[in-house]
Amino acid sequence: MKKFILSIAVIFSVTLFANAQKYAFIDSEYIMENIPSFNAAQEQLNQLSSQYQKELESMHAEIEQMYQDFQAESVLLSEDMKRKREDVIITKEKDYKTLQRKYFGPSGDLFKKRQGLIKPIQDDIFNAVQEIATDGSYAVIFDKAGDATLFYTNPRYDLSDEVLRKLGYK
Questions:
Q1: Selection from 25, 26, 44 nearest residue 118 by Cα
Q2: Which N-terminal stretch is annotated as signal sequence (predicted)?
C-alpha cells in the first residue's frame, strides 16, 4: 500500500512539475526543405552518389564479364593459367569492395562530403532552436520529423517557421 501511495505521489508531483514547463516542437525536415543551401547541397550529394554508383556498376560488370569468360575458357586453360585468371578476378573483386567502402563506407568520401555540406546547416538550425528555447523559456522542443513519435501536435506550438525566420528565410 505504501508503494502505491508513493507511486501516486510521484506521478502527481511529476504532473505538477510538467504542467509548469513550456513545450514546443519543430519539423526539421520542413525547415531544411525551406533552406535553399540545403537543397543545393542535397542535389550535389545525389549527383556525387550517382557518379560513384555508375563507376561501381561499371567495375562490377567488368568483373562479371571476366568471370563468364573464365568459365567459358576454363576447359581450354592449363591449371597454371586457371590460377592466374582466378587471381586476377579475385584481385579485381577486392579492388571493387575497397572502392565501394572508400565511396560509401561509414567514413567514406560520400559521408565526409555530407558532413562538410549538411553539418553546418544542421548546426545553424540547432543554434537557432537553442536561441528560441532560451528566449521563450521552453523546457523542451521536440522534433516531429523522422522517427519521432508525436501522436498529436497542435500547430500553435510549432516553431518551425520561427526557426526559419531566425535563420533569415521566408
A1: 44
A2: 1-20
Residue 125 contacts residue 163 (beta carbons within 8 Å): yes
Distance CA 86, CA 68 (A): 12
For 117, the grid coordinates are: 555540406
Q: What is the pTM of this model?
A: 0.71
Domain parsing of the chain, residue ranges: 20-167
Cell numbers for 106: 561509414
Tens digit of each residue's pLDDT (9 = 90 or more) over 54-92: 999 999 999 999 999 989 988 888 899 999 999 999 999
CA distances from 147 to 27, 32, 120, 128, 170 (A): 11, 16, 22, 22, 26
> Which helix (H) or strand (E) is 24 found in, with range?
strand 23-26
In sequence order, what are the residues at sequence separation of 6 or more whose Cβ sits closer than 8 angstroms to the Cβ of residue 52?
Answer: 103, 104, 109, 110
